[in-house]
Write a structure and sequence with these properties.
244 residues, alpha+beta, Glutathione S-transferase Yfyf (Class Pi), Chain A, domain 2, 2 domains, four-stranded mixed beta sheet, 10 helices, 4 strands, 53% helix
Length: 244
């Protein structure tokens, strides 16, 4: 059994999709980011970066403790190796998957995440955010162009359907909210439409659906918890959670 510490966000969806694709047994433990669950001592023990998703694999015992893995890319690689699916173990196929997985975790995800912040959350804060929003929307557009080019010659990012596609797909799902016309990127549109109808993808995207929130009605305290973070405030929040 695998425990999945999760919130219904693109990074969380990556893992729920992979678990469904591999037909693995797992239990979802929802992490309420607005209430600061990510700062609880028991969570920081398995995720020192105070971010989800995290998995705990109770079937893999290391030093008498279940194996915990944080960071979505590392989790996808771990699950791919464990299941023997969607992550080739020999090159050049493995190298192609790694290239596009790292492209996502280092590029598409961070840039799309910033678009999400300035579209969904920045309006709750004072100031003119137009330059920042435009900057990240442009970069998101550029990255979709990179995808579109490679998908001219491949059905999926690394050739066959893999963890690279599962990592990237959730960050494309919000294209309408980001005011992107996906039809401009015809190869991405074809890729996106093929993935979204996969039964395991649909199940993975539905995990924790009732807890989704794109900034609507979010409280000031939750905004502060989620976004006004620096090393000092995180340390203070962790101490507060430790004493609760």
């Amino acid at each position: 059994m695998i425990d999945l510490y999760y919130a219904p966000t693109p990074n969380g969806w990556k893992i729920s999709i992979m678990l469904e694709e591999c037909e693995m047994d797992y239990k979802v433990i929802l992490v309420n980011l607005g209430k600061g669950d990510q700062f609880k001592p028991e969570f920081l023990k398995i995720s020192p970066n105070n971010r989800m998703p995290v998995i705990v694999d109770h079937e893999n015992i290391v030093e008498k403790e279940p194996m915990s893995v944080f960071e979505s890319g590392a989790i996808l690689m771990y699950l791919g190796e464990k299941a023997g699916k969607f992550f080739p173990q020999t090159s050049p196929e493995k190298q192609k998957v790694l290239e596009w997985l790292f492209w996502q975790v280092g590029g598409l995800g961070p840039m799309a995440g910033q678009v999400s912040h300035f579209v969904n959350y920045a309006p709750n804060f004072p100031g003119d955010h137009s330059y920042s929003e435009k900057r990240y929307k442009n970069e998101y557009d550029r990255l979709l162009g990179v995808m579109d080019k490679i998908l001219e010659e491949r059905e999926y990012l690394a050739g066959d359907y893999s963890i690279a596609d599962m990592a990237s797909f959730p960050w494309v799902t919000a294209y309408k909210r980001y005011e992107v016309n996906l039809d401009v990127f015809s190869n991405v549109r074809r890729w996106f439409d093929a993935i979204k109808v996969r039964p395991a993808v649909r199940r993975g995207m539905d995990v924790g659906k009732a807890a989704r929130n794109f900034g609507e009605g979010i409280s000031k305290d939750s905004l502060k918890t989620m976004f006004k973070q620096d090393a000092k405030s995180i340390s203070e929040m962790a101490k507060k959670k430790e004493n609760e």
